[in-house]
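Feature request, filed as a ticket because there's no other form

It would be nice if the structure record came with a short human-readable summary line next to the tokens. Right now we just get the raw output. Example of a typical job, pasted below so the devs can see what we mean:
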Amino acid sequence: MNSTERLALAHWAVDQAKKSGADEAAVNVSNSRDIEVEIREQKVDKLKESTQNSLSIDVYVNQRYSSQSTNDLRKDSLSRFISEAVAMAKYLTEDEYRRLPDPKYYEGRKETDLKIYDDSYDALTSAERVEFARAVEEAARSRSDRIITCTAGFSDSEFESAKVHSNEFEGTTRGTVYSAGAEATVRGEGDGRPSDWEWRTFRFRKDMPAPEELGRGAVDRALTKVGQKKMESGVYEMVIDNRSASRFLGSLQGPMRASSIQQQRSFLADRLGEKIASDAFTLIDDPFVVSGFGSRLYDGEGMATQRRVMIDKGVLKSYYVDCYYGRKLGMEPTIAGPTNMVFAYGDKSLEELVAQMQRGILITGFIGGNSNSTTGDFSLGIIGTYVENGQRVRPVNEMNISGNLTDALNNLVAMGNDPWVYSSLRRPSMHFRDIQFSGV
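Raw output as currently delivered:
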């Protein structure tokens, strides 16, 4: 089924829902293909391919709402499926806020190529996938005689979808994703078995790095942990590298959603216009990043996307407000959830941020912990390196950082110039002062 046929099927399904008694309906017809290769101990440990066609439908009947999905796209089966979905919705509880977005929010959609689809995808063979993964593992194994185990992998996916609403919305999208890398465990001191990884994700195969870079990177990162120990508790400077910053910054995403605010699970509720971070912190939601992993022209509700400054020099400017919770809160909808989260980046690399620390810890990984979306309090296990007078001294682990996210963000000294471009959260390395660490 091609994109034209998917779009036609989506229109047909919307018509069927209306004929069955739905007041409104939204349909999404999608296809995805996923392939995964894994090499372990120089052997192919996994070679998996899956293809899925599906149709999902949201029906609105007398202020009642139901969402259903199926993988059977034969029209005779779909006709029964849709009529039953409408019939079942009539038994649900009324909800005055459940309806499709006002069509005015569909307007203004950009017509631009976001470059998220690789036209050469079909030319990639299984042999090439296996060869790449083998090369990654070989590069890792040749890096050190301390290696205990090593696993390398290559995966890719292709997806397409057609979305139609009964109130004059339609849209199509397709994209590709490639991912490759390795995980390695090495012999440490005593019973220590430090491990680490190096994985990268891309929209286009041509942008992938050499297998050697991935394999050696995983081993090199694991080796930096050899001899890691706890340190004494205290207040330290902190630098989080760009790879690891997602665990810390991810704690902002939930509280910025209208659903969390309405359900009283957000420490950011009623704080628009307030300063919640230092001047060094500016967060922008940008759906138009070329080849970005969150790039899109419309969101899950069909609303046209826009570039928005969410936090400007520490001041909270906007929330992620979908139509449903926007109605409940009396807020104007913005977008259902994050697209590409980008930042106002600084002018220093990770090494330059480390060099300006007097006494601190460079965090290169988080282990467990929790964060409270209602209060902003957090406690996270960390792995990293102790730094003194700008010099890396020794690896550390089995320590926690704790505090309140607002307090920590107000202690932000600088953002790095090194965004992690392999994710929709394009975070840089970050330098903080006065963070509480718990250890010995």
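Something like this underneath would help us a lot:
The chain has a mean pLDDT of 96.
Residues 73 and 88 are 20 Å apart (CA to CA).
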